[in-house]
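Troubleshooting entry. The earlier prediction with pantoate gave an output that would not parse, so I re-checked the input for stray whitespace and re-submitted. Clean input:
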Amino acid sequence: MQIINTITDMHAWTAQARVQGHTVGLVPTMGCLHNGHTELFKEARKNNSRVVASIFVNPLQFRQDAYEKYPRRLDADIQIAESFGLDAVFAPSTAEMYPHAPSTDWLFTLHDDPSYPRHQTKFVSHHIGQDNATNYIRVPSRLVMKMDGQKHPWHFDGVATVVNQLFNIINPHRAYFGQKDIQQIAILQAMNDWNESTIDLVEVPIVRDTDGLALSSRLVLLNDAERSIVIEVTKRIAQHATVSSANTQANTQANTQHAQALIKDLQSDIQSIQTHENTLVIDSIECVNPATLEPVDAIEDATILFVAYLINGIRLTETRPFA
Ligand code: PAF
């Protein structure tokens, strides 16, 4: 397996793979690999003769303190990637990915900079940085001012910017993303359409631990007490999604499963969890259409239940289909 750190070498690797007639699958990650990522590796391995994972903690999608706290373990990640038979890992530095940024600190200032406006319906690519050479993408309000994005729309601008950059550098045939983050997938799919890209975005179902938790790199930040509370929150969410799904199927004609009633019940159920000295705060609970991210009134088979909450300040999300 090759470890590649520069854009020039990555370009050369992918160009050679294409010339040799290979299909290239890309799994973009921020490292700290877990079984959710390795499921993406397995999917990518099935359908591509060359597979590369990128490992890059992207400052543009974090506030500075969260960026600094984000878990990093490159050596262990490289071993995992190798054990799953990957052909290459692309692990660039921040200076390599954003060569025109005067500093990493400068990247954090972009989040709230009003000189880079967003459009209601269209993606906007701002040319910024030294020589105006970085494409900084603002995601349209119609997709970002919803769900998780309402409180930090710049997070998805950062994701779109780095994925656009990775697609330009690696030019894969297919790219693999977990269904855990439905807003990220909806935004990246829309960006792909806007770019008229031929890259196929492949969605891979959520992978859960034996205790029901959806795998996420943030879980390593939890202590035992916090993890027990998160397990309980996850159970209650699953119960409400399952009961509502059964009710929806029983009432297909009357369509009487109202999202607002479910949200209210789930909210009081989560609030009733005993947390002792820990702080559990619900950020949002929504029932949405996964393609448009619009909240729905009546729960249908395709509806997704999305919950965002904080345990002692650590933000977690849970995504559940009703079907
Ligand atoms: O989902 C993630 O891990 C990140 O948002 C991604 C897609 C690798 C971009 O940094």
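This one parsed fine. The two ends are 40 Å apart (CA to CA).
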